[in-house]
Task: inverse folding
C-alpha cells in the first residue's frame, strides 16, 4: 500500500490487519480515513479466471488493448511520503495480457492478440509504418515464449520485469537480448499524422 503513514509502507492490507488484530475491511477503512489519497488495490494475477463477458469485449473487432501507465528506472527509490509507485502494468501489462487472454482463457489466438496491440492500434492512431512487419517499416519486434510469459509485478514491488520476454527490438535496435537490457535507448516520441 502507498500511504503517508510510514507504519503502512510496504505492507498489504492483510498484513496491517494481522498486525493490528482487526478485520481486513476495517484495516482498509482505517487506511483510507487516515490518508484519503492512499493507493490501494488488488493483484490482478490472483483474481479468478477471466470472466466470459470480458472475453466478448476482447473478441470485438474494434477492441484494442493498451497500457495507460508510466515506467520508472528500476533503481529509483522514493525516500519520503507520500509514497508513489507505478502500477504493476508499467512493467508487466502486456505480459499479463498475453498470459491471461491467450494462454489461460484462450479468448484470442496469439495472432489476434498481437494485432490488437500493434497494427490495429497503429492504424487507429495514424502511426505510419508502425505495428507491421514489412520492408521500410520501423522494426519494433518482441520475441516471447508464450508458454512461459508471466507477469511478476506486485503492488509493493511493481518494477519487476516479466519472464518469457526474450528479445525486444525497437526501431531496428536490440534493446532486450536474452531477457537482459542492452542499455540501448532507440525509442522516440510518436506523432500521428494529421
Result:
Amino acid at each position: 500500500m502507498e500511504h503517508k503513514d510510514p507504519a503502512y509502507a510496504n505492507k498489504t492490507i492483510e498484513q496491517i490487519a494481522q498486525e493490528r488484530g482487526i478485520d481486513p475491511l476495517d484495516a482498509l477503512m482505517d487506511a483510507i480515513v487516515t490518508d484519503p489519497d492512499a493507493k490501494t488495490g488488488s493483484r490482478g494475477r490472483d483474481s479468478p479466471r477471466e470472466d466470459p463477458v470480458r472475453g466478448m469485449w476482447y473478441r470485438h473487432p474494434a477492441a484494442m488493448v493498451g497500457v495507460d501507465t508510466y515506467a520508472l528506472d528500476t533503481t529509483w527509490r522514493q525516500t519520503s511520503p507520500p509514497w508513489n509507485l507505478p502500477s504493476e502494468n508499467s512493467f508487466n501489462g502486456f505480459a499479463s495480457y498475453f498470459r491471461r487472454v491467450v494462454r489461460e482463457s484462450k479468448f484470442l489466438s496469439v495472432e489476434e492478440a498481437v494485432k490488437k496491440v500493434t497494427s490495429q492500434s497503429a492504424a487507429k492512431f495514424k502511426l505510419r509504418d508502425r505495428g507491421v512487419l514489412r520492408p521500410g517499416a520501423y522494426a519494433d519486434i518482441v520475441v516471447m515464449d508464450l508458454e512461459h510469459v508471466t507477469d511478476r509485478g506486485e503492488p509493493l514491488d511493481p518494477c519487476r520485469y516479466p519472464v518469457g520476454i526474450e528479445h525486444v527490438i525497437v526501431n531496428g535496435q536490440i534493446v532486450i537480448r536474452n531477457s537482459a537490457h542492452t542499455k540501448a535507448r532507440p525509442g522516440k516520441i510518436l506523432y500521428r499524422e494529421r
Observations:
- The chain has six helices and four strands.
